[in-house]
């Protein structure tokens, strides 16, 4: 029975929107689950303790035994996760292949059941500066990617053009952590409405940054997304 479980865990599985539960045993080492990913796909992976007494979960993602990402004690706003759970978000896969999701406990000495959930999103297209028209769908964010260099200052503006939106801007660093975000700019401007969003950020390192814009209440409508980059 144990060997059957291990063989099943090592097979490629379709995780998006289908969480699976695994059982970690003290001192038995990590458990691996395989995911067949595609190049430039964006994934979010959560490892959530289901035990009455939460265990300290760690999550590692590997390709050909090379570590792509690691997390212990997530620092996200994902609802339903406990402080000791692990989460890797906004991870862009570098190549086609079978990725290993390695789940363990921090000490290696805890036992318990862990739920693994993976959400996959299509590859994100580059942004189109200096200005592009974006149509927001209900309760859906619009993402795009910007290549930025260290020392540059980027100013992002989301201006409602349909009279229905309260735009929210977010810029994430290449590793998925928050760089800057804004809802309802606080600047004196004759070209922006009160609920429009604007944020400026000085880039610390070269890389591909992810910009997302959504409506605060999930409404639909059009906005003008402006990206100004100064060296």
Question: Please, could you describe this protein's structure?
Answer:
It contains one helix and 17 strands. It folds into two domains: 2-121, Jelly Rolls (Sandwich), CATH 2.60.120.380; 131-230, Jelly Rolls, CATH 2.60.120. The protein has 231 residues and is mainly beta. A hairpin with a 5-residue loop joins strand 13 and strand 14.
Largest sheet: 5 strands, mixed
Give the tally of β-strands: 17
Task: Name the strands of the widest sheet in spatial order.
Answer: 1-3-8-5-6
Class by helix and strand content?
Answer: mainly beta
Q: Fraction of residues in helices?
A: under 10%
Distance between the termini: 61 Å
CATH class of the largest domain: Mainly Beta
Assembly type = single chain
What is the secondary structure topology, with strand pairs?
Elements: H1 2-9, E1 12-13, E2 20-24, E3 31-37, E4 42-49, E5 57-63, E6 66-72, E7 86-92, E8 97-105, E9 112-121, E10 131-136, E11 142-148, E12 153-160, E13 167-172, E14 178-183, E15 197-202, E16 207-215, E17 221-230
Parallel strand pairs: 1-3
Antiparallel strand pairs: 2-9, 3-8, 4-7, 4-9, 5-6, 5-8, 10-17, 11-16, 12-15, 12-17, 13-14, 13-16
Short description:
This protein has 231 residues and is mostly beta strands.
Task: Give a quick set of tags describing it.
mainly beta; Jelly Rolls; 5-stranded mixed β-sheet; 4-stranded antiparallel β-sheet; elongated
